[in-house]
Amino acid sequence: MARKQQDENLQTDKFDYMDLSDTFIADIEGPVMLKGIWKQWSPWTQCTVTCGKGRQTRRRQCIGVCPGRKEIGKWCTKMACPVNGNWGPWSIYGPCSVTCGEGVQERTRLCNDPTPVGDGEPCDGVDASSKSCNTETCAVNGNWGPWSIYGPCSVTCGEGVQERTRLCNDPTPVGDGEPCDGVDASSKSCNTETCAAFTATLPGGVHFFQNGGFIGYPIKLLDNRGYSSGIFTVLPGLGGVYSVSVTMMSGYVTAHTTLRKNGAILVWLFTNNKYDMASQTINIQLVEGDRIWVQMTNQASSLFDVYNTFSAVRIR
């Protein structure tokens, strides 16, 4: 029985490979006969791989039973097999590039999962990306821009005001920045020349007038160029809007007076009894050459004392 098992071992040539410093050997199992002749080793076989690390072997034949190894092997190394690269995970985003205002955060990744080998393709894409950060604006203190020129005078005669302004825009305050210090408007006086104006009245006592008679108002309380003997004529450069007032006190009989512009009636005043009073003020537009006056408009009228006045002042 033991003899039969030994014969089977010889026929099957059972052996194991062992790595011995870049070579591996095959040991024949079974009984060793002391006499035998080895033939020459065969050439090395082709490497078992076309890339990376493989193996080569060669064999020899024994006539009889020979001590030693029937087959030996060695490792063979070809160029590295190509491995396509693949991206590893993204890193976390780094700190923002600024502490205020819009900045950038960056992150990176490596082409190492796996790293490309040999003729393998590199990773497709970019190895860095970024995003905006700290979109809150930085604090900027405000500063005044230049003053505007002064605007027109608020009146065309008499003391008025001219204004100018400025903007807090050089720069404009941003975020927690301080606003501009000071005021955004200033003013100055203008047109200090007095407006065209007059006030006139009658002397004391009772004064009789016929229908259509001009009332001269000879006593000038406020004199002005253009007024004479109860008629005011608008001189060159004095046109504008005038506030015109007429006050009347009748004497012994009722009275009717009218304020006229170039002959047209603008105001009609009348009283029912002696020493009654009537007055009216209107605003009218007058141009160069216009004339205004007051005249009696009924028969046998009388006016009493200084309570009868005629005045005008340009208001714009």
Structure overview:
With 316 residues, the protein is mostly beta strands. It is built from one helix and 22 strands. It has one helix at residues 2-12, and strands at 17-19, 23-26, 36-38, 53-59, 62-64, 71-77, 103-108, 128-133, 160-165, 185-190, 197-201, 206-209, 219-222, 227-228, 231-233, 240-249, 256-261, 264-270, 277-286, 291-296, 301-304, 309-314. A five-stranded antiparallel sheet has the order 13-11-22-16-19, with no helix packed on it. Strands 14-15-20-17-18 form a five-stranded antiparallel sheet, with no helix packed on it. It is rod-shaped, with a radius of gyration of 62 Å. The termini are far apart. The model is unreliable at 1-30 (pLDDT under 50).
Short key terms for the protein model shown above:
22 strands; mainly beta; 316 residues; disordered N terminus; five-stranded antiparallel sheet; 1 helix; 3% helix
Brief account:
This protein has 316 residues and is mostly beta strands. The chain is built from one helix and 22 strands. It is rod-shaped and about 180 Å long.
Question: Uncertain regions: pLDDT < 50 for 5+ in a row?
Answer: 1-30
Silhouette: rod-shaped
Number of helical runs? 1
Residues in β-strands, percent = 35-45%
Distance between the termini: 146 Å
Please list the strands of the largest sheet in the order they lie side by side: 13-11-22-16-19
Mean pLDDT equals 84
